[in-house]
Amino acid sequence: MIKLPDKNYIKLTLGIAAAFIIAAILSINPLIPALLSLIYIYVLIKRPVLRHFSLLNFILLYLLILVTGYFTLKNGLAVYYIPFSVMPMLVVLLFNNLELALLISITSGVSVATFTSTPFQTTALFLISGVSSGILCFGARRRTAVIRAGILTGLIQAITLILTDYLWFGAPFRYLVLFINGIASSIIVLGILPVFEYLFRTPTNISLLELADFHHPLLQRLILEAPGTYHHSLIVGNLSETACNAVGANALLARIGSYYHDIGKLEKSEYFSENQAESVNKHDKLSPAMSKMIIMNHVKEGAELARKYNLSPVILDFINQHHGNSLVYYFYRRALETLEEDQEIREEGFRYPGPKPNSKETAIVLLADSVEAATRALRDPSNAKVEEIVQKVINNKFIDGQLDECELTLKDLEKISKVFIRILSGIYHTRTPYPEGVNVESNHKKSAKENRTSSSKDKPLNP
Prior knowledge:
- By secondary structure, the protein is an all-alpha fold.
- 67% of the residues lie in helices and 0% in strands.
- It is elongated.
């Protein structure tokens, strides 16, 4: 038995009652509100998994295809003119979730089928074209991939019609209409996609790749004003992307989120270690409390910059959550060292405001951010040291409760640590020092000259 909060039971009861009342008033087949009620219950149960998704989004998409199908049939056009795959393609591109595409295909297919004289064929076309187009569009990063999905979906729709006609090839024009239908659906999706991105406040892979363009004003500012932070963000992006691939998370989202997670450091970049010269540390002249305030404030300032530049709320999550409510340990320890007898230092005052990461992607960026900074600070970055520091950082974050609200398992953390160790060992490996006083370039030239001389001596003389 699945338990829901009391307020959800009230919503559920009112929602189901309203659906049947509206159906009765509009003389709609009772099958439709019954199906919608089941979908409503399912989405309510799965809500924690379906992040950045609202039931209102689903209802809007469902109503759009329902109204389109109704007026298509009312105007005397055949069912083949209904754009079956538009909504499943939109759902997959917007929410990166095949499950939602299947749900929208089932609900819209059964609903529109009640308006036709061929309910089985209509439902089959909706379901098969919806699932096929969703699979073909899943993970699409280029507009050409959507067009290609439309072409293949058109072919699948034509084959579906042949199968539902029991291999009877009658009225060939229908197959051409269904083939063009698939292509037209993909073109429609590309045209309306920016509108739904704006309405639902969620980015697609296509728009995420646009944020990866290093000509974006915020990335340009990072390159010029905080080059150390920019380099750090690139490494965090590589770590996060590879780790997400290892645990089945959205790798592209994590990489783009990593690029922007530290944009708040632009305001006071010189106070962060990656942007400081080795002999200069501005925190030496500040109290631990003031230093803590500057360091912690980069999250708030990053969020303000994200809103100013109209970044997606999904990217904003990476900015707000990449430290969770972690302790600013270094300055907390400094505060304890300078503590006087009549003073009290509370740990809560040295913790980031949070929230904790609530998705795999934001949690992985939190871990990548921490292990990269810790590894970069190693004086002797041998493979053993890198492995030790990575495992220590991940264990500390786990024990501190920073991963409590995300879906990462212990098995996932093991895979992530292996990825981090492999990449960081390659980046920060120990290099063999050259002997003092030896000019490397001259030495190479000398060796090359000696090799040529030696080879000319060994070569036999021509008679």
